[in-house]
Amino acid sequence: MSVQEVTTTAFDDQKPGTSGLRKRVKVFEQANYTENFIQAILDGMPAPGAKDSTLVVGGDGRYYSPECIQKIIKIAAGNQVKHLIIGHKGILSTPAVSNLIRKRKADGGILLTASHNPGGPNADFGIKYNVSNGGPAPEGVTDKIYGITKTLKHYKMIELPEVDLSKIGPQNLGPISIEIVDSVADYLVLLKSIFDFDSIKAYLHGTHRHDSIQNCVSSPDFGGGHPDPNLTYAHELDAFVTPSDSVAIIADWAQEAIPYFKNGIQGLARSMPTSGAIDLVAKAKKLEVFEVPTGWKFFGNLMDAGRLSICGEESFGTGSDHIREKDGLWAVIAWLSILAAAEKRGIKHGIKGVLQDHYQKYGRSFFSRYDYEEVDSAGASKMMAHIESAFGQKEFIGSSLSSQTGNTSFQVKEAGNFSYTDPIDKSVSKGQGLFVKFADGSRIVYRLSGTGSAGATIRIYVEKYSKNEQEYDQDTQVGLKPLIEVALTLSKLAEFTGREKPTVIT
Predict the structure, then answer these.
(1) Which long-range contacts (CB under 8 A, 24 or more apart) does 92-95 make?
(2) From 53, 65, 98, 115, the catalytic residue
């Protein structure tokens, strides 16, 4: 079996966002588009590189995944990758990939997911590279990969027979060994080492019909549903906890409810747009707390240095140092552990009771995100430039911004473009989001998202802190209405984009 060098033409739009390269399926299906990016990943791998390496491959099972995996196998073989560990039927959750990389001491992994973006032939696909610690590739690596994509002239491959992804076990193809593994087994072992499942089982007593289990069969388009877990797409939810509150509550209960943390917590962290609810927990428990840019990769260095145990993002990513990725199932089981512990403590009414208990202890951080998807990129950029220009005016700091609702005004205390210096490797990430902080502790953040597949996505985040018990049960949108009005007026969003309403409100 000989290596073929296939001549190709570079693409200029393969810059990875905060979590890999995400585009419409039709874009990835273009001739050589997928092959180019896979080759760039292998060329951009940190030393010692792709030769003789072991990589974990899998994804969320969305449309185009099987075809992409076959391409990865052929190109990996052409680049002298030694071993591929692939999930059964190509399916591995992101945390399962991170765990396998760490457990098997692999050199990295290629994940096929576009996360919260929809799946299907007319929807989105994504490819993400994770490094040997199990976490997303840091900016230095993704920048190198992007540089390679712009100059690529050929990719290397070996024409191999199609691999049967449904057959668990080893498959030797000659130049490369393939191992198809159970998608869940190793990850389940990890979860059992973290949580007290007997306690959870005792809490979930009673009889439950088998058909109460939902969304457990893999589908290329997620059964026609939307994978973004917010109230716009999940009307059937009874109680909703914002991701910002969720990670704060998990951090507060962790030592009491989760055996993994019995010996202590090293530190807490959140992404910059995420509300400061977790900061209050850190202060009460005398823990270090970090504010990092959006993107799970920024948590990895802190975890590797032993300074971070629990972290989260307002976009529903939550996790801990058990792996180096966000872990939704971990968060669900953490909440079941908390509910079991809360019942023993005498806290009633389940999730709502835990929420009220938290607000009584720490106060409430009202938080909401407005997403404007597939906005004209030029208009979005002009809007961001306008906001930054306003921040730069001498008279802006100290000025009052007024809303129409309730005759409310907010005095500007600080404004700027968030920059982060990694405390471990001292790398600097600039331009991570425009923010304005007010004298009463309220805050507005503006970002252009790096996870959309077409056009630009504008995200506006608004936060207000309250220690007024009369407001704890207030609807989030009602509580934030004056601040939202200020955010829209300051940005002139409607003027620059033509949008009157957001696509999604979280």
Answers:
(1) 92/56, 92/57, 92/58, 92/59, 92/183, 93/58, 93/60, 93/183, 93/187, 93/328, 93/329, 94/60, 94/325, 94/326, 94/327, 95/187, 95/319, 95/323, 95/325, 95/326, 95/327, 95/328, 95/329, 95/330
(2) 115
